[in-house]
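Human: We require from you a protein record containing the residue sequence and its fold in token form, and nothing else.

Assistant:
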Amino acid sequence: MATEDARPWHPVVRARAALDALERLVVGMGTSVLAVAASLWMLGTAVLCVAGVGILVVPAGLRLVRTVADRERTRLEVLRPEPVPRNPRAALAQASVRRELGWLVCHSTLGLLLSLTALTLAVDVMHDASFPVWWWFVSPGDATPAQGFFTATDWGDAFAVCLFGVATLVVSVLVMPLLARVQEWPGLRLLAPARGTDLALRVAELTATRAAALDAHAVELRRIERSLHDGTQNRLVAVNVLLGAAKRALTRDPAAAEEILERAQDAGEQALAELRAVVRSILPPVLTERSLPDALTALAADCPVTCRIDADLPGRPAVSVQVTAYFVVAEALTNVAKHSGASTATIRLRGERDRVHVEVTDDGRGGAHEDTGSGLTGIRRRVEAHDGSFALASPAGGPTTLRVSLPCGS
């Protein structure tokens, strides 16, 4: 059975589209008014140029045009272009500036006219549809439809006006999206970024993610080095010292030597355990032996906070994706146990198309932020290094939800 949104001619869908279009047209009227002001400024600048002094205010006028155009770009979710040069001739030679001037003319005339038309239709609908409610209380000469083409003298005329308002509503629902598209067309056509902008942005994004990957790699190396230096290396030094002491005490006091050897054995076992922990943190064996859901189940079992696993991951993604997802959940559960004061946490794992989605939610006090030094920045960098997305929602009072999405091909 098709859903409501899947039927473009469903009345509710059409009404939503009309309301959305009306909103866009009203917002567009704001930029239309700004475009009118900028057009008057440029017209005045042109007059002053004829007098020989306008060339001095051309850069200010072009900056005003750029500002108004940027407002429209923001409304249309189009990226901002390059800044306007100070040299007026160089500015006018730019194709982007010429396109902005063309858009200014279109939007200050056609765009404003379409916005006023949309508002007029909306006001006419409210006026005529409610006509039977208030027509009796006005003077006979004012009891007319919005268009004023006749005067209502009885209830029959009043309901006829109401029906006319309903008909206007139907027409508005049908034409409002078209008006919005026509108003936005000059901006989409003339204010679009230049060719190659998307490629340049993608290169910049890849450069940033490559830097994040290198940073994450350096942080991981520092963590491993610190773990080996502060833990395993110290244990091995202690084993070496204890073995030397046992060797010296062997001939003098065999009983003391035996005690020292037991201490050396304990230190060696602790060093081995710490070394295994470091190795597991690099690439958890459970990811190789079993699966990512099983590895997350093991993490949840070790967490002091009660955790629930909700996993639906068909197939096995790349090892790098599994390791990153494992790292995200491990860091998140560490934060939950240390900082949140939560009693329960939920881990959701989903595989959809070419992405893996991980979500960790807890019922703690909330207020988590990347600036608090809780490892969230490290999670973000590691996720972005895989060209993934990171989102954190943690209002004061909770709950806290961490969402990560990773491309399976990374």
In short: Strands lie at 306-312, 344-352, 355-362, 389-393, 400-407.
